[in-house]
């Protein structure tokens, strides 16, 4: 009898350990429930949040699915505003679903599973998607920067400004969003701010030319990261033409003189400031009228630079 009880106890402990391990491995299990396949729709906004695979990665995935089937479930979401009971939006698995459709168009059938994400709104789904994508191992540096920047922009907006809801354990003060995310992703807070500029630049392109945005994020079209950050710093009402890669280059070229002029002005101001500090240090009771006039001229020049 004791032996039977010990076996049952051991089985129970193993089951608990199995559940604990599963939950630990997937931080989002609380939001997911398994369902049968539904009528799957592609939402362009959701799709735009998925960094595209590079050509070689996509081919490797297709070969794997053709040889072994779809091993990972597609992730869906039911929009509460959609009255149809059958329509579900694809949240994760866009590349797999594209391959599934390709194989089925060839006349072959392929089995796959789906899971349903239980979140209340599109905004909640977007936040989930960005965080989930940032957990991928195969992201390029540009894709990771883009996603971190998106998350920063969304969290900043949701908090009504630059301060996050979290408090700093060191001093109890409200912690800034870019500081919080910098700690979370082990990068500097300034890197997060540059990521935000990069993401804004990419998003501005995506509004007018979604395909070009995907090509840039996939690495198939090369645009300097610094140029996209420059684009992200421009005001939203600035004229922008990105109908093609060439048009984007022309837009960036038009912006660069502004940047160079600002940098030149900043360099001039710094030089004048250093000259003024050195000049003031020379002044004393016995300073000549020439030294005093030189000091006054430097002050006037600095005031002129500030007013520009």
Describe it for me?
- The protein is α/β, with parallel strands linked by helices.
- 61% of the residues lie in helices and 9% in strands.
- The strands form two sheets. A five-stranded mixed β-sheet has the order 1-5-3-4-2.
- The model is unreliable at 14-30 and 164-172 (pLDDT under 50).
Task: Offer a few descriptive terms.
308 residues; alpha/beta; 3 domains; 5-stranded mixed sheet; 12 helices; 61% helix
CATH topology category name of the largest domain = Conserved hypothetical protein from pyrococcus furiosus pfu- 392566-001, ParB domain
Strand arrangement, major sheet: 1-5-3-4-2
Count, helices: 12
Largest sheet: 5 strands, mixed
Q: State mean pLDDT (0 to 100 scale).
A: 81
What share of residues is helical? 55-70%
Q: Say how many strands there are.
A: 7
Number of domains: 3
Structural class by sheet pairing and helices: alpha/beta
**Approximate shape:** elongated
The second-level CATH architecture of the largest domain is Alpha-Beta Complex
The radius of gyration is: 28 Å
- Sheet-strand content, in percent, reads 5-15%
Could you spell the SSE succession in H and E letters? Answer: HEEHHEEHEHHEEHHHHHH
Which consecutive residue ranges, at least 5 long each, have pLDDT under 50? 14-30, 164-172
**What is the CATH class designation of the largest domain?**
Alpha Beta
Spatial separation of the terminal alpha carbons: 91 Å
């Amino acid at each position: 009898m004791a032996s039977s009880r010990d076996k049952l106890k051991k089985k129970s402990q193993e089951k608990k350990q199995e559940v604990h391990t599963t939950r630990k491995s997937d931080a989002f299990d609380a939001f997911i429930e398994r369902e049968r396949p539904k009528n799957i729709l592609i939402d362009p906004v959701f799709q735009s949040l998925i960094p595209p695979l590079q050509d070689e990665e996509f081919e490797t995935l297709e070969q794997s699915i053709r040889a072994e089937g779809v091993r990972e479930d597609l992730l869906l979401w039911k929009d509460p505003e959609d009255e149809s009971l059958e329509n579900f939006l694809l949240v994760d698995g866009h590349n797999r679903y594209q391959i599934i459709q390709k194989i089925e168009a060839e006349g072959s059938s392929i089995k796959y599973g789906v899971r349903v994400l239980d979140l209340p709104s599109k905004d909640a789904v977007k936040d989930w998607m960005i965080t989930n994508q940032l957990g991928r191992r195969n992201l390029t540096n540009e894709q990771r920067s883009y996603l971190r920047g998106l998350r920063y922009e969304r969290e900043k907006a949701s908090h009504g400004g630059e301060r996050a809801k979290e408090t700093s354990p060191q001093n109890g003060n409200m912690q800034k969003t870019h500081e919080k995310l910098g700690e979370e992703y082990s990068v500097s807070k300034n890197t997060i701010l540059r990521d935000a500029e990069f993401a804004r630049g990419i998003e501005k392109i995506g509004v007018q030319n979604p395909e070009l945005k995907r090509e840039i994020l996939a690495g198939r079209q090369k645009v300097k990261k610094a140029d996209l950050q420059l684009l992200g710093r421009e005001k939203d009402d600035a004229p922008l033409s990105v109908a093609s890669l060439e048009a984007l280059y022309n837009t960036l070229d038009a912006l660069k003189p502004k940047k160079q002029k600002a940098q030149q002005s900043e360099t001039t101001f710094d030089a004048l400031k250093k000259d003024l500090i050195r000049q003031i240090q020379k002044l004393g009771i016995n300073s000549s009228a020439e030294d005093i006039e030189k000091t006054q001229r430097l002050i006037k020049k600095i005031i002129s630079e500030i007013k520009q």
